[in-house]
Amino acid sequence: MTALTSAGPFVRRAASLNNLQAARRVCVGASAAALGLYLASPFVTLWNIGSAIQTHDMMALGQVINWSELDASIKHQTLSGLHLEQASDDLPDFGSSFATTAVSNAVDFTVTQANLGTLVDQAVPAAIPANQPAPSFASLVEKASVRFTRIDQFEVDVPLPGHEHDTPLKIEMRIQNWRWKVTKVEFPTARTPIMQASVAPSNA
């Protein structure tokens, strides 16, 4: 009886250690599962975007877009190109201001949920030349470059057929309200040529 009584604390301690180890295993397993879901979540969102475009499900596509940030992104790209053209044409300040306002208003009017179907119908043919067969979403994903730029930001670079000498299509997504949202899209543009300095000695 005395031996059983003296062994009681050791039994309780062993049971406590077993419970602690079991709790740790549960925590480690839950953390690993959460990390796996986090790493997979942007790829699931990308796949849903591709499926929505292929099936023309604009309702589903619109749910993964942050419209205000996408509007600002497209407006910035459009105005950047406009300013370059204006610099080469040397427009007066009034003409430059008017053109900037007109383009900004046009983007605000166009980049909306109501016009999403039209935007997709116009953007896809514009991105893929007419002499190129439409690639499957899976083939585009295979060539894509993906990266986490921040813990809440994910970027995808997609080289498009017919734009081998242009920049890739870039899609930026961020976690907002516990969901990945498309916040920025950069369309292919001509790459800026890199100037190479000559290292050959001068004959002068």
Write structural notes for this entry:
By secondary structure, this protein is of the alpha+beta class. It has a domain at 18-79 and 135-189: Nuclear Transport Factor 2, Chain: A. It has helices spanning 2-55, 58-62, 67-89, 93-110, 116-127, 137-143; strands at residues 145-150, 153-158, 169-176, 179-186. Strands 1-2-3-4 form a 4-stranded antiparallel β-sheet. A hairpin with a 2-residue loop joins strand 1 (145-150) and strand 2. Helix 3 (67-89) runs antiparallel to helix 4. The longest helix is centred in the N-terminal third of the chain and has 54 residues, at 2-55. The radius of gyration is 27 Å and the shape is elongated. The mean pLDDT is 75. Pfam families: DUF2939.
Helix content: 55-70%
Total helices: the number is 6
Morphology call: elongated
What name does the CATH topology of one domain carry?
A: Nuclear Transport Factor 2, Chain: A
Please indicate the percent range of residues in DSSP E strands (runs of 2 or more). 5-15%
In total, the number of strands is 4
Q: What would CATH call the class of one domain? A: Alpha Beta
* Main sheet specs: 4 strands, antiparallel
Mean pLDDT: 75
| SSE series | HHHHHHEEEE
* Named CATH architecture of one domain: Roll
Strand order of the largest sheet: 1-2-3-4
Backbone CA Rg: 27 Å
Low-confidence runs (pLDDT<50, min 5 residues)?
none
Gap from first CA to last CA: 108 Å
What is the structural class? Answer: alpha+beta
